[in-house]
């Protein structure tokens, strides 16, 4: 197999990859993407039984369900390509006439772009449809999120005009995307590394890392706060906060690149 990247061959493999994703994960996609409809039906049935009235789920409940559905989607990334660790399915995947670079790019596109975009599209379309057909449903979730986003952007712009440090709307978008990519890549990597208990293994690692980071923060933060308390001007504190945010974004970016590199190394070394 020629290991160079061929766009025509990649496109053929990418279409095949999408078909396999739908064939293997269509039921999960319907459940996660259609969570708003499921909650709507359950909520209405319960209200009819106990309140004898047709009551649609309120905006707060719908927002919580949306957040939970997206978290589940993140976690489910561990199963998208989890079959690669199985001897039969993994061996078949290795025999597909496409280079490892083409398979890697397809894997990233499916995990980071196609799956999240489809989730948002399906979820918001269903939610918007329910908002149109049921007067008790209220405003569509996408409209509410758009309004909230506009308010946040206006607040950032206004704060940036008054602050000694420049804040722009773009400063919110980049770290959000990096955070999404980092989460999806982490569970993807765990999915193709662990042969069994993929999600449990992923959470076990997260638990260990959170425990270590909590111990370090518990030791360092109180001492840092005690040293700077009452001795630092407000504008300097703002600059420190911005530098800390920029450092966190840079760290998240490096972690994301590292996770992508880990996925690449796993693809190159996987054997059955």
Task: Determine the N-to-C terminus distance.
Answer: 17 Å
Shape: globular
β-strand percent reads under 5%
Total DSSP helices: 9
Helix-strand makeup class? mainly alpha
Summarize the main sheet.
Answer: none
Radius of gyration: 23 Å
**What is the count of β-strands?**
0
The number of distinct structural domains comes to 1
Mean pLDDT: 86
Query: Percent helix among the residues?
Result: over 70%
Oligomer classification: single chain
Poorly predicted residue ranges: none
Order of helices and strands: HHHHHHHHH
General description of the model:
81% of the residues lie in helices and 0% in strands. It is mainly alpha-helical. The longest helix is centred in the C-terminal third of the chain and has 36 residues, at 234-269. It starts with 6 loop residues before the first helix and ends with a helix.
